[in-house]
Amino acid sequence: MLRRILLVVGILLVGLLAYMGVRWVKDVWPIEDTSLKNEGIGKLAIGMDKADIGRYYPEFTVRREDEGNAYYFGDEADFIVRIDAKTNKIVCMELRDKIDEQDFMTKKGIGVGSSLADVKRDYGTNYRKKNTEIYGEMIEFQDSKSNQKIGFGSDYENNRVTVIVIYDYDTYKFPY
C-alpha cells in the first residue's frame, strides 16, 4: 500500500515538474527573428544619443536613477525613455498611455489602442507570449541582429494594445 502511494505521489511530482519546465522553456526558448531594424516610438529609437530626446521632444523631463537617467514625457507613467549611464544611449522605451497632441507609435504604426490583429499583421506571428508581473499578458518579438525586443501588452477583453516596450536586451534587462 505504501509503495502504491509513493508511486502515485512520485508520478504527480514528476508531472508537476514537467509542467513547470515546459512553462519556463516557453518563456526563454528562442523564437524566429522579426526585423526590428530602425524600430522605435515616435522619432526615437534604441541606440540614439540622449541629446536626440531634447532635440525631438523638448517637453521630456529627466529623473536620475541608479542605472542612468530616465526621461519622462508628460506624467511619469505615460512615456518613459531610459538611458545607459555609460554610453548615454537610449536602451529602453515604454509607452504606457496615449498622450494628447502627440502621435507616439512604432515605426509600423502601432500605438496604444491599436488592435492585436494589427500588431500580428504588421509584425508577424513569430512571437512569444509572456505573463508579466508589471503588464500581465504580453506578446514579444525579438531581433537577434539588433539585440532588440518589442513587447505589446493588451487588455484581452477588447484585444487592444495597452503598453509598448522596446529595449536592447544585451544592454538593458527589462524587469517584466
TrEMBL record:
It comes from the Bacteria. This is Uncharacterized protein. It comes from Listeria newyorkensis. The lineage of its organism: Bacteria, Bacillati, Bacillota, Bacilli, Bacillales.
